[in-house]
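Hello forum,

I keep getting stuck at the same step: I have a sequence, I want structure tokens, and every attempt I make locally crashes halfway through. Rather than fight my setup again tonight, could one of you with a working pipeline run this one for me? It's a single chain of 196 residues.
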Amino acid sequence: MADQFHFHPDRYLELVRAEVSDYDLLQDLIAREASDPLPASILDLGTGTGETLERLARLAPDATLTGVDLSPEMLERARALLPRATLHVQDLTAELPAGPVDVVVSALAVHHLTDDEKGDLLTRVAARLAPGGCFVLGDVIVPDDPREAVIPLDDGYDRPCSLATTLELLTRAGFVDVRVVWTRRDLAVVRASTRP
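Reply #2:
Ran it on my machine without issues. Output:
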């Protein structure tokens, strides 16, 4: 996204809400999908300041919380918000924290990867999930109608793909019950499960 929020942890919410008008709805939908049924363990990819993980912690107060993000500054904010979470400074192309976990979530982070990197990440996510676990992704997509691409993007840093490509990558990674929860313009929330 045009103003890279990891450089501004103190202004993250203000900046992201200015560029992503449906930010809070996206977060609410991710939390709803990821908390049904209530998970015992949650891994958040691209934790940032902890907004997604904090919403899930409220819904699943006994869950083990783990998050990863490339920005130490963003994770410092998340640590203040989620003192019981285990947070790792790392890139999404690195090995994921040990599993299995019941739920993996990601909000507005995976679109920074190339399609090949997305496919690799999704394969690793599927391997970290417990049998019957779920992955909930809320992210920027390339809409079918170019007029619906309203979120400003930064060439070379933002690499969204179409919803169809996202669904194909999830299926190729071994997920089952891959379904679109919600889409509006250039945003989507998708849920996918591992075999029981």
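The beta strands are 41-45, 64-69, 86-89, 101-107, 129-140, 176-184, 187-193. If your local run keeps crashing, start a new thread with the error log.
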